[in-house]
Amino acid sequence: MIGKSQKPGLLWPTLLSALALALLVSLGTWQLHRKAWKDALLAEIHARKLATPVTLNSPQDIESWLKNDGGEYTPLRIRGVFEHDKERYYFAPHQQLGPGYHVYTPLIIAKQRVIWVNRGYVPERLKAREKRTEGLLSGEQDVIGLMRLPGKKGMFSPTNDVSGNLWFWRDLEGMHKSVFDPKKVRTYAMFVEALAEPENPGGWPKGGVTIVKLPNRHFEYALTWFGLALTLLSVYGAFVWQRLREKKSLGGS
After folding, report:
1. What is the separation of C-alpha 245 from the centre of its chain, rounded to a whole number of angstroms?
2. Rounded to whole angstroms, how far apart are CA atoms 76 and 62?
């Protein structure tokens, strides 16, 4: 005969619930810390974008800046000569303007030294250089733009079509190798994304394409973990109430 005392007590359910509760609260608190860190980072990037451009007049200046500062989204001013015949086209549909491309052009800053510049967006109909000749700036130019790091291939990013000059992720090394011998002509581990002002003659390419993409859903994640913690407390409370009620009922019979 099974005795009534053989029913499980509250010790193990309480210990396991306490451990689970501590874990859920810790995860929620960690997400709040992550949110504070991400908020500070976004504020820093916003302030950096509004700073006075850093003038880099030589390869030595660039190398020194990259080594000692090199913050992404920092405004830079670099002087050089564009080689428009080596444009690379990065597929980048525009929400308002439709299918199009970002035009990446090497800027010659010294003998055998280039910086790759994202000059901005062009629609499909203006992809060919001969259709926007006004914007093909000649001679030395001052380029003002934001420093960007090379891209990384995402899990679902298509493979770049190097021979067809169609790029789906910002492969700096691939772009450079497609038109230069890296042993003879060096570049740097960064792009420069031209600002919207000054506007290019003829209006194309349209600069100012930089979008800061830093997912910041940590508050939602924190609410999820804390919500699960409250659910656990409710379930545990209902379990304890039911068990005590059964015990009282059995004790009075």
Report:
1. 55
2. 10
